[in-house]
Amino acid sequence: MSRNRQVFQAATKLRGFFLALFQPIRSSVTTNMQVIQTSVLLKYRPLFAFLQRQAPAVAHEVQRSYVGAARTYYETGFRRYARSLGRIKVFILYPDISNLIELS
Description:
This protein has helices spanning about 5-25, 35-40, 45-55, 55-95, 95-104. It is an all-alpha fold.
């Protein structure tokens, strides 16, 4: 088996492996991003370095996938936070609204 074929097979398997690691980030906001970054992603840093050296296009795709997953994670979290702040603001500005809500 030629070296190029082996590199191609390794890059293909690593691509699937990394994309599977990002799935919990995409599927749930309750996933602890910091734990994934420190415990999981840093552990496989040498594998990503291999991808960058041997298959830069695949490494770039994996990187874009991670950035997209992280972006969705943080946008969703921030949107929930902003919505909660809006609810708090309503209750501060209109303290009697809780009585109206209970009557409904």
